[in-house]
Structure formats: structure tokens, C-alpha cells
Amino acid sequence: MSSKLKLVECPRDAMQGMKEFVPTALKIEYINKLLNCGFDTIDFGSFVSPKAIPQMRDTAEVLKGLNLNESSKLLAIIANSRGAEDALSFEEIDYLGYPFSVSETFQMRNTNATLEESLTRVEEIQNLATKKGKKMVVYLSMGFGNPYGDEWSPEIVLNWSQRLNNLFGIEILALSDTVGAAKKEEIEPLFSLLMKELPKVEFGAHLHTTSEKARDVIEAAYNAGCRRFDSAMKGFGGCPMAKDDLTGNLPTEILLEWLKKKNIVSGIEEKAFQDAYSFSSRIFS
């Protein structure tokens, strides 16, 4: 597990559930401002069916307008091999993100595949990514429970993590609280268990939460040793495949405020962040 703090800004997650289409030029201008901030990674778009996520149908066009630099990497979400092939046709993309749910119900809703079928997809995508010298980030969706009544336990999350790492060599796993189910007293033990059993895996926190709970869940994950955090400005977003009432993302500004209060260096350029934060009002209101 890397000890370096890695902050992942997620404009894709913030925008994907918005009903009104955000103009491509506006997306480009916003993401370029995020690229100036110093985030380790920008989760900028997805190569999925435009029928499923119409907001992301212009991802390839957005990519052409980005002013890339050496400080921030790009991550694109994909749901199958076809999406992976589309994403891998762009040398600029560093990571392919695949949502692998520990809830069978959500896996069907999100990617129209069973868990076992999804394992096959992970293998196919990992093979494609490896040939191109790219890495997969696998999101353990519903990693802290689910609203469907599917069985959940820390041991179930550990079992899937071990299979993904042992069978396919997945090195980055992001625990995803897709519907804001995580309780602060559950977060630290789960991360601690996973890191103890899989010390070479980089575990991240992709937490959907409210502003009121945000500081508690950040602290719980950080205290457990997590050093990879996904967030989105103003906490916008959520997964439109999970349920009708979206639970937003961890707000980036609260994450940065917490890190500053704890005297933890974020690596984010404050002036550039304020510029991007002000601009975000043109997209998120």
C-alpha cells in the first residue's frame, strides 16, 4: 500500500446523473481547470453506452480538448471489453475504471452482468490494458452494504478483493459506498482487514456521503491507512443506476479542509483550486 496521498477528482461521477446535457466546451474548460490543481488523477469520462449514460456520450471529444500535464493522470470508466477497447485507443488515458459490485443485484443493474460474468470481463479488460501498458482500477461497488437485501459482510468484500488480486493481478481496488450506507465505525475495521490481508494492493475510498457525515468518514478511512481518496467539488453526483434518490460524492472542499486542519499536505495548488471551484458553479448549482 502506497503511503503517498493520492487525491482523485471525479467530474465524471459528478456530471453523469445530470439530466440536462452539459455542453462539451463547458466540460473541457472545467476539466482543464481541474488539471491545473495538482490532483493525482482526474476521473474525466466514460466509454459506456450513451443510452445508459447520455451525459458521457462526448467523452472522446472532451479528451481532444484537454491540456494534459505530467502531474495528473486520466481515468475513464468502462463496463465491458468494447468500452475498454474504445478507451485504450487513446494513449492519453492512464487508467480504466471498472465497477465490480459485491452486490449481485447492483451488478446486474449497473453492467447487466452477474458477478461471475463480471469476473470474466475483468480478466478480458485486464489483458487488454496490460498489453497497452495501462492499469485497471476496480471499484468494489456497494462495498459497505446495499439497499437490496443482498448478503454483505467484511469477509465477502475480502473474498472478492482476494479473487480480483490473486486471479487477475488487480493492484488498485477502490471501496465504493455507492448509496451512502457506510457508518464511520464500520469503515476503519474494513479497510484495516483488507490492508492486512492484501498489503500490496492500493485500496482507495470512493465514498458517497452527505456534507454532515463527510469528515467522519474521511477520518475513519485515513486512520485505517487509506491514502487514496475520490471526491467531487460541492459533493455533486451519485450513481444513477443505484436508486432514484442519489447520494452525492464526498465534497472535495471538505476533504481539503480536513487535511489542512490535520496538517497533512494535499499537494493541491490552492489558487488553481479556488479558480476551478468558482467555475464549477456554471455546471453544478
Overview of the molecule:
The protein has a single domain (6-282), classed as TIM Barrel, CATH 3.20.20.70. It has eleven helices and eight strands. It has helices spanning 11-15, 24-35, 59-64, 81-88, 104-111, 115-131, 154-168, 184-197, 211-223, 252-261, 270-279; strands spanning 6-9, 41-47, 73-78, 95-101, 135-141, 172-177, 202-207, 228-231. Strand 6 (172-177), helix 8 and strand 7 form a beta-alpha-beta unit. The chain is globular and about 45 Å long. The model is unreliable at 240-246 (pLDDT under 50).
Number of strands: 8
Radius of gyration: 17 Å
Would you identify the CATH H-level superfamily? Aldolase class I
Poorly predicted regions are: 240-246
Can you summarize the main beta sheet? 8 strands, parallel, barrel
Silhouette? globular
Mean of residue pLDDT?
93
Structural class assignment = alpha/beta
Counting DSSP H or I runs of 4 or more residues, the number of helices is 11
CATH class category label: Alpha Beta
Order of helical and strand elements: EHHEHEHEHHEHEHEHEHH
- What percentage of amino acids are in beta strands? 15-25%
Comma- or semicolon-separated keywords:
285 residues; alpha/beta; TIM Barrel; 8-stranded parallel barrel; 11 helices; globular
Please give a quick description of this structure.
This protein has helices at residues 11-15, 24-35, 59-64, 81-88, 104-111, 115-131, 154-168, 184-197, 211-223, 252-261, 270-279; strands at residues 6-9, 41-47, 73-78, 95-101, 135-141, 172-177, 202-207, 228-231. It has 285 residues and is of the alpha/beta class. The longest helix has 17 residues, at 115-131.
